[in-house]
Structure formats: structure tokens, C-alpha cells
Amino acid sequence: MSESLTCDVVVVGAGMVGAACALYASRAGLDVVVVDRGPVAGGTTGAGEGNLLVSDKEPGPELGLALLSLRLWRELAEELGGPVEYEAKGGLVVATTSESLSALESLAAGQRAAGVGAVSVRGDQLGELEPHLADGFAGAVHYPQDAQVMPALAAAHVLRTSGARLLTGRTVTQVLRDTQGAVRGVRTDRGAVHAPAVVNAAGCWGGELAALAGAPLPVQPRRGFVLVTEPLPRRVRHKVYAADYVADVASDSAALQTSPVVEGTAAGPVLIGASRERVGFDRSLSLPAVRALAAGAIRLFPFLAEARALRTYAGFRPYLPDHLPAIGPDPRAPGLHQACGHEGAGIGLSTGTGLLIAQVLSGRTPGLDLHPFRPDRFPRDTSAAPSPTVAREVR
User: Fold this and answer.
1) According to DSSP H, which parts of 328-375 are helical?
2) Pairing mode, if any, of strands 183-188 and 172-177?
3) How far apart (Å, rounded) are the C-alpha atoms in residues 83 and 57?
């Protein structure tokens, strides 16, 4: 049955970024409708680990957004309580050689200057933080601000708290624009939602939605696998990863890259990552990736050699070529606001993104400079999405 709704803002995407945009826009007094072709957290959010990190970010605009987002996450966790499974566990980045430790210390020095807590740890002190960590590491940096949430639960509870109307199972087929080119809502396969503002929080599919609006973004999926062990006694206290993980995050390579990332959960299973490769939306199991994850995890924590892996799952990170998300109003389509391309940091950066989008939507000055995140910064011919047919509607 076709229906037509009217609101102030339509948010496309019911993952964590979309949920945060809906929450802060609603709190700014706007009437919000959230549309998603699948269920809540059915895309990248549902396949993520829920990391809220500053440790993996170099000084610059993304780190500024991460620090803002962490503050907002702490406020939300206090407000929402246990259901989001917020855990301020901290992160521990370990270096295998004196050379990698020197590079890690240099990164940490810049992060400290930007407001990050980063504590140097000698190799012979690591056992105090992680008693089950393998011997022989040159040293590490401890990041007390790193935290974690259960992403699917967090998205669901934030959406419920927002009070926004939620329309799931509805595919956006057109972005409606008037004769002057301004956005006037979206049409779905089950009716239209009319609004003077559309927020693109569609994650890996953000390029498709942007193309429908005539404002292409070169969003591409970057596949990653996670191994999940059987429930275990809590032996991993922090999010622990090797220093080369930071380089892998910043890499432009499409080839398979793996670097060990290990963390325990409140429920008992240990989560093991991280892999990255650009293979489109191919979900098929990659044995080389999974084997590399297992081997890397055992190098960090030898006791995992005796643990059983219960399952593995794949997810897709929305990748943009310069590793920064697109956030803010898109001058190519007035009324369109981009909030996608966060790659693997969408959970952690979602709250700051949502607040900044809400500030723009409500006519306030955003709390961070949005220029580095501007949606029109990419050459048009780099877009991965096809040229769309834009629906125009006179209202």
C-alpha cells in the first residue's frame, strides 16, 4: 500500500549514524522520519564490534570528531544505562620492535597534544595491564579513553529514545527535488516521504543514494571479517592490537590486509579482527583472511590457541578515498545533508556526526569545522555510483 508522509527531516539509514542523526535532530525540535530498506542495524552497524576509539586516529579533523563523539557517548551511556553495553575498557597498542615502538610513540605525542590520554608502557610492564599477553613486545601505549558498545543494541535504543518515526523494509527509489533543484524528500517502493531536508546515512550504500540526488560520492565497501570465540573467562582486559593496525586503517590498498585486534566482551566471547579488502559486496568466506586473523590473535595471546572459534562473520565498511567521512550540507543538492563514509569508525564517530548534522539542520553553527568533511571535495569522475535519473517534483 502506497502512503505519503510529511516531516522536517528524513534520515535514510537506520544504522548507528542514522540513529544518532535522528536523536540529535529530534532533540533540536525537528520532526524526523527514518527510512531503511532493511531492519535497524542491518548493514555495517550489525556487523561491527562497537569500537569507540581515539587510539587509531592521527591528529587532525577525524580525531577532533572522535573526541567530541566520545564525550557524547559517555553522556548517552549514562542516560541509556546497561542496554547499550557501554564499557570504558581502554585500548592497548603494542609494538613488536624498537622501530615500531618509536613510530607509535611519535603518533602518541601528537595525539596527546590534541587532547588524547596516551600513556607509554615499557615492555616489562605489559603484564600488569594484560597478564595473558605474549612475552617479547618492545612496549606499548595505553589509551584509557577507548571504549566499546554493543552496536546493534545501541542503534536500537538510540532510535527508540529519539522518538523519530521509523519506516523499515522500504527502499528509496528516488530523491525528490523541486524545479530549482532543492531536495524535497524521497520516494520509496511503498510511498513518499516529503521533507525539506534529507540526511544520507546509508553507509556503504550512501554512494547510491547520493547519486540519486545528483550529488555523487565515491563510497565503496571495504570487507572485513571478525572471528568470535566460545565464551571464556575474562582474560583480555583491553582492546589490544598491534601498532601496524593504524597503518592498515590508513592504507589505500584494495588487497587483503590483516593486523591482529583482540578484545573480550562482557558476555564472554573474544572478538578477533581485523581484516580489510575491497571486493565489492562479496560476502563469501575468505579462508586466508580468517586464518591470518587466528594466527595474529594467537601471537598476541597464546592461550587463544586452545579456544574454539564458534563463528565468523563479514561486514562492509563504507570507504572514501581520503579516509574521512562526508558530513554536512551538500551544495550540489540544496537540502541534502551527507553523513556517510565513516569506514570502520562509524560507531565511534556517530554521535558527533549526528550532533553536527542537527546543528546545521536547526540553523546553528556546528561545533566543529566541517570543511575537511565537505561532501563535494571529490572529483566527479571518482564516484563509484552510476549517474542517476533525478526525480523532480513541484510542490
Assistant:
1) 346-361
2) antiparallel
3) 27
Question: How much is the pLDDT for 181?
Answer: 92
Report the SS3 class of residue 126. Answer: helix
Q: Where are the alpha helices (DSSP H) in 8-60?
A: 16-27
Q: How far apart are CA 57 and CA 88, in angstroms?
A: 18
pLDDT higher than threshold 80 for residue 395: no
What pairing do the DSSP bridges indicate for beta strands 183-188 and 139-143?
unpaired
Q: Which of 49, 147, 151 is nearest to 90 (CA)?
A: 147
Find the range with the poorest average confidence among 180-189, 215-224, 375-384.
Answer: 375-384
**How far is the C-alpha of 195 from the C-alpha of 5, rounded, in Å?**
9
The pTM of this model reads 0.93
Nearest to 161 by CA among 366, 305, 20, 321: 20
To which H or E segment does residue 94 belong? Answer: strand 91-95
What is residue 371's three-state secondary structure? Answer: helix
276: left (phi over 0), alpha (psi -120 to 50) or beta: beta
Q: Give DSSP secondary structure letters for 205-260.
A: GHHHHHHHTT-----EEEEEEEEEEPP--S---SEEEETHHHHHHH----S-EEEE
Q: 117: Cβ–Cβ under 8 A, 6 or more apart, which residues? A: 143, 144, 145
- The pLDDT, as a whole number, for residue 2 is 67
Do 69 and 17 contact (CB within 8 A), yes or no? no
pLDDT of 219-230, one tens digit each? 999 999 999 999
Q: Using pLDDT thresholds of 50, 70 and 90, give the confidence band for residue 266.
A: confident
